[in-house]
Predict the structure.
Amino acid sequence: YYLSYYAKRKTFKTKVTLAGRDINNYMEKFIFKKIFETIRKIKDGNKKKIVVAGLTYKPNVADLRNSLALKIFKKLKRKISNVIAYDPTINRKISKNLSIETNFSKIKNAHTFIFLVKHNEFKGLYSYLKKKGKIIIDPFAWLQIERNEIKKKIKLKKKLNWKKNKKNYFFSIRSENIKTYLILILILKVILFIPINKFFYS
């Protein structure tokens, strides 16, 4: 926005920059429509408490300027009155002025949770809400991606552990074989060192 503004003042053409803005505007409309349609499918969804989690410009940053998530929240608020904003990364003074909740304990009893920004503080929150039977709307599918990554890590860990155990197993077998071979060699040495006549005349 700022770049295109200054470029326009200097009579530079900014088609690429403005194209990026058009994409963001389209994303805003698309995500809002997706969320709103999902809420409408929930029985009495517009009457139950709904939380929009994450409102900042990007993850783990307290800046709200040019935030797509904030624009989507404001649109939802105009359509559904019982929508609450929640973002633990925002400064308390700013959050108070904008009526954004920063304390999870105050909104944990909500019926539906919409995740719009992937803050680190939200890690573990998804599974907690799932256990509590809450409805989760994840339009950007970031949490689904995170779950898939966790599953991949678990599978990889299991695979590595299996290979390690397999290696240890074969090593133990080899160790046992070596022990057996050593015993046999010692027995043969003892037998070979005993004179043959001792076997016949003992």
Summary: The two ends are 107 Å apart (CA to CA). The CA atoms of residues 68 and 83 lie 17 Å apart.
